[in-house]
Specification:
With about 700 residues, this protein is of the alpha+beta class. Strand 26 and strand 27 form a beta hairpin. About 30% of the residues are buried. The chain is globular and about 100 Å long. The longest helix is centred in the N-terminal third of the chain and has 29 residues. Helix 1 packs antiparallel against helix 2, helix 7 packs antiparallel against helix 8 and helix 7 runs parallel beside helix 9. A nine-stranded mixed β-sheet has the order 3-10-11-21-16-15-14-12-13, sandwiched between helices. The structure holds adenosine monophosphate. The site of adenosine monophosphate (AMP) has 15 residues, from strand 11, strand 16, strand 21 and helix 20.
Length: about 700
């Protein structure tokens, strides 16, 4: 990763200025030692102070360049304000708090649950319903064999180091990352070359082996953050929670680390359910479990979280998408591989161009990127703080054709919230092999096609005589030869009568004689094509999206008296935990009766709401409802009409009691906007004394 031009220039300027300060400091000392005249010493000191001042100004600019202009402290202060509000208003609660909690486990409280339910309802609407997906709901407890086939048992690991004295565990890459970031952020006198080295480590962090990570930790003298004790060498730690199924303990299992495997293992039935037709997509929402080594980023890295995943199965030879035209015009921030490796920043692109220029591998992948963009922005994610970043070649699994992450910028930096990957045929092949059940699709030809087929026929009797117990390995190795290898073997057998042949599973070379195998090409009629579908997988971390939504929606504004800052969540009505609150202006029976009548009409219209009959001032009640992100507040100040106040503008209209529910409904279901309503109803200009 290249350094920003301004940061690099500033680091060089800092180094030059420091050298000038040192030189001037020495000049002052020399003058004093030599007993120079006071005026001369004073002038030199003045020059030194001026240089120091210039250095401090560069230091400030550099600090701002490193922290993205906002300044590290204000980012932290902003996060603290959001988190305090979220915890105080019970959007979420650290789980098992009365027992001092467990890192990485959180409960959603009442408004948090409502927001989550709204996000999931919109997800179902936007993806499952609009795209006709097949939704499934599979168990969290998964037998080992499934996760062995998927590769999770062997490879779902992070590299861990231990405090050699206390045994406390840390993620090795996180310690190295923290070290580099801290140095870059705080050591302003660091030379540009050293800074480039640390930035490069940050860029290749995911790619470092255990040995390389261990070597860097040693080289930089990184120790356990809490105790300063030395650390063990890094070693892999599997992130899955292990369990056993049934009382005997004989069936090993795991809590699923993702929901996708449940869909893959059901492919055969889902394909049949879909009339044996491709493409089709299956979807699943559910809990995923990852025993993160040392989770630190609040709701962003947790040990149990909700995933919403889509597996879109498609013919590998035709990844066009019939609805691509609907989203091709969308333009948003994309961060292709080339821009990342050449140190440029994300750029605005039309997704249609990104696909036609081959930057995004295929239309289906591009279609989902566009749909994810619409989903996130309609939820209230800020367009300017959302980008789609392509995986670098070293980040992608070898089988993947292309991967893009929807990253959202929050106070923790750019966070991966949705991964969108073309995983080729890897998963279905892996489960076909392990289960012995072919997970394949067919394309029936309208006319039979004549094809030339390679036929390899091992002569088992001869092979058995020659290789005895190893016969099976030799037969399998012969059968999986590709066309080129097989035709070369055929010609060598014809010319020389025998050939040397490497059998991987035996780890040695054997001699194959002419009588042991026949290789030919035969013309055949084919009525269908049989293939393993490719899968395009958008995988949504619901908790991460919700946390970023909290940050993007949060702002503060001064109270009327100007003596305090009031918190507001500007949630779109779609995600707001409730759509409106109803306040009788003063505590009296008549107004409370009206409030109840309005509440009934809101219930009939299906609008979630709350009545607040506490005696607190109306201003305080507005502040409370703003802090929950409730879009509209109805104040009952007469028995025939009421005021409706919009949260962000604080504009109020007056509407009759009969009209209230329909006004709230049309604004919150999106059929009207607030400005439409403002136009139609009389404004209420008599703002309550508290506002
Ligand atoms: P992955 O399978 O690792 O690509 O993860 C899929 C999605 O799950 C990511 O895009 C994240 O949004 C989310 N995710 C992964 N790990 C965690 C975690 N520990 N806590 C919360 N969300 C996570």
């Amino acid at each position: 990763m290249a350094m920003d031009a301004s940061e690099e220039t500033l680091r060089r300027a800092m180094a030059d200025k420091q050298a000038a300060v040192d030189a001037q400091g020495k000049a002052v000392r020399d003058l004093k030692v030599s007993g120079a005249a006071k005026a001369e010493v004073d002038a030199a000191v003045e020059a030194l102070n001026a240089l120091k001042l210039e250095k401090s100004s560069i230091e400030n600019q550099l600090q701002a360049a490193i922290t993205g202009g906002a300044g590290g402290l204000s980012r932290d202060a902003f996060r603290q304000a959001v988190v305090n509000t979220l915890e105080r208003r019970l959007f979420y609660i650290p789980s098992f708090k009365i027992y001092r909690g467990v890192a990485g486990l959180y409960d959603y409280g009442p408004p948090g649950c409502a927001v989550k339910a709204n996000v999931l309802a919109f997800w179902r609407q936007h993806f499952v319903l609009e795209e006709n997906m097949l939704e499934v709901d599979c168990p969290c407890v998964t037998p080992e064999v499934v996760l062995k086939a998927s590769g999770h048992v062997d490879k779902f690991t992070d590299l861990m180091v231990k405090d050699e004295k206390t045994g406390t565990c840390y993620r090795a890459d996180h310690l190295l990352k923290d070290f580099c970031k801290e140095k870059l952020g705080k050591d302003l006198s660091m030379h540009a070359e050293k800074a480039a080295e640390l930035k490069n480590i940050l860029a290749v962090l995911d790619d470092l082996s255990a040995e390389e990570l261990g070597a860097k930790i040693k080289e930089y003298g990184i120790v356990a953050p809490d105790t300063k004790n030395s650390l063990s060498d890094p070693y892999p730690f599997n992130l899955m929670f292990q369990t056993s199924i049934g009382p005997s303990g004989l069936i090993p299992g795991y809590m699923r680390p993702e929901t996708a495997q449940g869909i893959f293992v059901n492919f055969k039935d889902l394909y049949y359910f879909n009339g044996n037709k491709l493409p089709f997509a299956a979807a699943q929402i559910g809990q995923a479990f990852r025993n993160e080594i040392s989770p630190r980023q609040g709701l962003l890295r947790v040990r149990e979280f909700t995933l919403a995943e889509i597996e879109h199965f498609v013919d590998p030879e035709d990844k066009s998408h019939p609805k691509f035209g609907d989203i091709a015009h969308l333009e948003f921030l994309m961060f292709p591989r080339k821009e990342q490796t050449s140190g440029q920043s994300a750029k605005r692109m039309r997704i249609g161009d990104a696909v036609s220029e081959g930057i995004v591998n295929n239309q289906t992948l591009g279609y989902f990127i566009g749909r994810v963009y619409l989903f996130l922005t309609q939820l209230g994610i800020d367009k300017e703080r959302l980008r789609f970043r392509q995986h670098l070649a070293n980040e992608m699994a070898h089988y993947a054709a292309d991967c893009w992450d929807a990253e959202i910028e929050c106070s923790y930096g750019w966070i991966e919230c949705v991964g969108i990957a073309d995983r080729s045929a890897y998963d279905l092949r892996a489960h076909s092999e392990k289960s012995g059940v072919p997970l394949i699709a067919h394309e029936k030809f309208s006319e039979p096609r004549e094809v030339e087929k390679l036929v390899i026929a091992p002569v088992k009797k001869e092979l058995g005589l020659a290789f005895k117990g190893s016969q099976k390995n030799v037969v399998e190795a012969l059968e999986v030869m590709d066309e080129k290898e097989a035709m070369e073997m055929k010609s060598t057998l014809e010319s020389k009568g025998e050939v040397e042949f490497h059998v991987c599973t035996l780890g040695k070379v054997v001699t194959i004689k002419k009588n042991m195998v026949t290789i030919s090409k035969e013309k055949k009629k084919e009525y269908q094509r049989v293939f393993t579908p490719s899968v395009v997988e958008p995988s949504f971390g619901i908790g991460r999206i919700i946390y970023c939504l909290f940050e993007h929606s949060f702002y503060t504004r001064p109270s009327k008296a100007g003596d305090e800052q009031l918190n507001v969540f500007r949630f779109p009505p779609l995600v707001a935990p409730i759509k409106c609150t109803v306040f009788p202006l003063v505590q009296n029976q008549q107004y409370e009766e009206v409030a109840k009548r309005i509440s009934t009409s809101l219930t009939v219209a299906g609008i979630s709401h709350k009545i607040d009959i506490t005696g607190t001032s109306i201003g305080k009640r507005y502040a409370r409802t703003d802090e929950l992100g409730v879009p509209l507040a109805i104040t009952v100040d007469s028995t025939s009409s009421v005021t409706i106040r919009e949260r962000d503008s604080k504009d109020q209209i007056r509407a009759s009691i009969e009209d209230v529910a329909s006004v709230v409904k049309e604004v919150t279901d999106g059929s009207s906007t607030w400005p439409d309503v403002l136009w139609r109803f009389p404004a209420h200009s008599h703002v309550s004394t508290d506002e």
